[in-house]
Amino acid sequence: MNAPTEAQTLAALQTAPAGAASLARPVPGAPMWLLAELTYKCPLHCVFCSNPTDYAAHMSELSTEDWLRVFREGRAMGAVQLGLSGGEPLLRDDLEVLVAEARKLGFYINLITSGIGLTEKRASALKEAGLDHIQLSFQDSTKELNDFLSSTRTFDLKNKVAAIIKSQGYPMVLNCVMHRYNLPQVGRIIEMAESMGAEFLELANTQYYGWAWHNRAALMPSHAELIEAEKIVDSHRARLAGRMKILWVSPDYYDAKVKPCMAGWGSLFMVIAPDGLALPCHSARMLPGFDFPNVTEHSIASIWRDSDAFNRYRGTSWMSETCLSCDEHPKDFGGCRCQAFLVTGSAEATDPVCPKSPDRHLIDEAIAVADAAASSSLTAQPQPLRFVAGAAKGGGMLFRTDANSRTLVDAVPGALEIATPHA
Ligand code: FES
Predict the structure, then answer these.
(1) Which of 6, 283, 333 best tests ligand 1's pocket when mutated (most atoms within 8 Å of CB)?
(2) How far apart are CA 12 and CA 260, in angstroms?
(3) pTM value > 0.90
(4) Which has the higher per-residue pLDDT, 215 or 385?
(5) Lower CB count within 10 Å: N or C terminus of the chain?
(6) What is the rounded CA–CA span in Å between residue 399 and residue 423?
(7) How far apart are CA 416 and CA 395, in angstroms?
């Protein structure tokens, strides 16, 4: 599963009433964007998956009735956008029922999928049920790298699914998570999207949470690689103007400003995890010191308005002096709490991506390591364009597998299984 991206954030902001994310108002009007993570199960094993690394400890799932109640409550509060995600949401055989009810309630419904399980019959049933939008993920434009990064043989299947989506009259919306391995191929990824008739391509530079956090050293590109890739994106963007929109999700470690994560904690987004835990973002589950409420015990309204979890980082009272004294905080809402925790160990810290953060050196050190790795691989040998069996071991990447997740749950140091792609 990919995290809600800049495009989704922008879409939600565009539909939000003026001032919805205002810091002056401690409790915003409504969770405009509801993201329903229907299941943590997934046939893919992506190294950058944003699901929690301990997902194996949280495999229970809400019933159909529970989800329908959540949708009704969310819509009654004013939610307008509903994302159906996972794991792989197509693994839920009640997906059509959920979509039909969400449609009746008046949601704009987006399915965020790897495409695995989307047959012609199912796509047509989902269309009939009222699904508005499908976002299909690819890992690369080549079969070798696509299959390597997900550790599954899925590239050919995804191509078939793309054709099915097109034939059903959906807008073709592709998403590709970008990192050191596929940035050199960004031009080919754009050409692949073009050949598929995509109207929209999101090139989502990796954000380092979940499995991507564990694999950061292997995935992080150098600054030079990013600059080169962005130039290529710009030239294709100009060439394809009016035909295909390309979104380049900013690689935030390299940005001069922090991102307004989730448009502010508890301002617009509510994520419901498969087991019913309500979260202000897709990563918050790993933050210590929280008792996140569950929709099986509390209403959406009380969770949104009254829970400590959703109130903790609203407004400005929690902010460090660095953020409080900065003119940017009404725009960036203090940045990302999960990033602050992962990098500095404190969720209250100034987002370390900010140049004013006392911890900015931690980001600069990670960039320096990525730059050094890129220059040593350039002098040693040309960048491999194709998957080489066993490369995962050499790269030290941790694939999203149930076995690895269980190991992380048990936190046995050094016991992680470094998965290799299927032979
Ligand atoms: Fe959790 Fe940014 S991802 S606050």
Answers:
(1) 283
(2) 13
(3) no
(4) 215
(5) C
(6) 15
(7) 14
